[in-house]
Amino acid sequence: MEKHNFVTIADLTRQKIEYLLEMSQEFEKYPNREILKGKVVATLFFEPSTRTQLSFQTAANRLGAKVIGFSDAKTSSTSKGETLKDTILMVSNYADIIAMRHYIEGAAQYASEVAPIPIINAGDGAHMHPSQCLLDLYSMYKTQGTLENLNICLVGDLKYGRTVHSLIMAMRHYNPTFHFIAPEELAMPQEYKLYCQKHGITYYEHTSFREEEIANADIIYMTRVQKERFSDLMEYERVKNVYILRNSMLANAKPNMKILHPLPRVNEIDYDVDSNPHAYYIQQAKNGLYAREAIFCHCLGITLEDIRNDKTIID
């Protein structure tokens, strides 16, 4: 099978994104198959994770693969001083594909350059989170019926939020309007604003989270203020509860507006929002299973036609 890495969303064409969304649709219809029977998937998480790690592992299991790996680098030879290169080369002896999360920006790109097997970036520092981005795109497409011309509010930690950075790059194909809503300390980094300007993406910056933006939004994408990214805990305390989305704020929202969140949440979405029909973050997390099944197959050279003709479906 041909090797494909999945390290960044930035180098995916519109056609490739939509191809992967079609694959995700096929897996939502029939998630249980044996199309990866005989394959071994390694999940290497050098940084904590719940949804990403479990959904990658579940995707592998539901497709018939075996799973190896670790969820705490302290239990690996990294704690003994083993380099990332040696870890990747060692695991490549045992697995057919690696999904890895690392705290250093660019670690997945480096791994893809040294590994003889495909690498999937499950998040690298505050940089990129392409698999989350694919499930976000799938969630938006499912709920809005299109990715074109959407009005999207990105709220919270836009400085360290790797999910919003990936989303900006993916949406360059679809003429979005972004509202960057963040305190000055967590504003969208200049490099992503320059990216928007280069690709003709309209954006506005706000420091207040007003009902006017909520009323005009197709998507509200909430993010957690990430305590682990702060070296100054006093700064974290100042900004951690700046924006809290409450049920009362949604009275004038568009009927089809949906609230997304990469999770975990802390205080930024009140629990009274959970029962509101605009809330979609739990279903969004479920969509991660289908998107990650598609990523595994794409990286291992399995085509959309192969999936549609697959005879290993398990009812």
Sheet with the most strands, sense and barrel status:
5 strands, parallel
The helix/strand series, from N terminus to C terminus, equals HEHEHEHEHEHEHEHEHEHH
Number of strands: 9
Stretches where pLDDT is under 50 for at least 5 consecutive residues are none
Percent helix among the residues?
25-40%
Structural class: alpha/beta
Distance between the termini: 27 Å
General description of the model:
The protein is α/β, with parallel strands linked by helices and 315 residues long. 37% of the residues lie in helices and 14% in strands. It has eleven helices and nine strands. Helix 6 links the parallel strand 5 and strand 6.
In short:
The chain has 315 residues and is α/β, with parallel strands linked by helices. The protein contains eleven helices and nine strands.
What is the fold's blueprint, element by element?
Layout (H helix, E strand, L loop, with lengths): L13 H16 L10 E6 L5 H12 L3 E5 L13 H9 L4 E6 L4 H8 L4 E6 L5 H15 L6 E5 L6 H9 L6 E5 L8 H9 L3 E5 L4 H6 L2 E4 L10 H7 L18 E3 L20 H19 L4 H5 L7
Parallel strand pairs: 1-2, 1-3, 3-4, 5-6, 5-8, 6-7, 8-9
Helix pairs in contact: 1-10, 2-10, 3-4, 5-6, 5-10
Quickly list its features.
five-stranded parallel sheet, 11 helices, 315 residues, four-stranded parallel sheet, alpha/beta, globular
